[in-house]
Amino acid sequence: MKKIAIAADHAGFEYKEYIKNQLKDQYELVDFGTHSVDSVDYPDFVHPAASAVENGDCEFGILFCGSGQGVQLSANKHQGVRCALAWMPEIAALSRQHNNCNMVALPARFIAKELAQEIIEKFLNTDFEGGRHQNRVDKITCK
């Protein structure tokens, strides 16, 4: 069973809870918070989730905030993380196929919960194509 890190700020809290309920039978979910709709700073939850993906404790990560931008930017500060902002299933698929992304960020204020679920399922069930894409992925990290 794949182990998935999941985190959100206050704007993404309800989506996080919805997705946890939808995925709980298929995946082992590790919830890094937040645990309410009270205003919080997203990096406080994203960094522990991204660290879990980066160090291999979790295979993938799912993040939510209002726009998806803040959580994605925070996650991508981690050397071992490639986090994609996805607002449709096709973007999620391409982020896996071409970029071998291991985290996905979703904009809770701009998509329906059901669409979020479709995006996440597409992300988690799409494989990296490797080949010519591996060379490009290898060039992403600054040394």
Automatic annotation (TrEMBL):
<dbReference type="InterPro" id="IPR003500">
    <property type="entry name" value="RpiB_LacA_LacB"/>
</dbReference>
<dbReference type="InterPro" id="IPR004785">
    <property type="entry name" value="RpiB"/>
</dbReference>
<keyword id="KW-0413">Isomerase</keyword>
<dbReference type="Pfam" id="PF02502">
    <property type="entry name" value="LacAB_rpiB"/>
</dbReference>
<dbReference type="GO" id="GO:0016853">
    <property type="term" value="F:isomerase activity"/>
</dbReference>
<dbReference type="InterPro" id="IPR036569">
    <property type="entry name" value="RpiB_LacA_LacB_sf"/>
</dbReference>
<comment type="similarity">
    <text>Belongs to the LacAB/RpiB family.</text>
</comment>
<protein>
    <submittedName>
        <fullName>Ribose 5-phosphate isomerase B</fullName>
    </submittedName>
</protein>
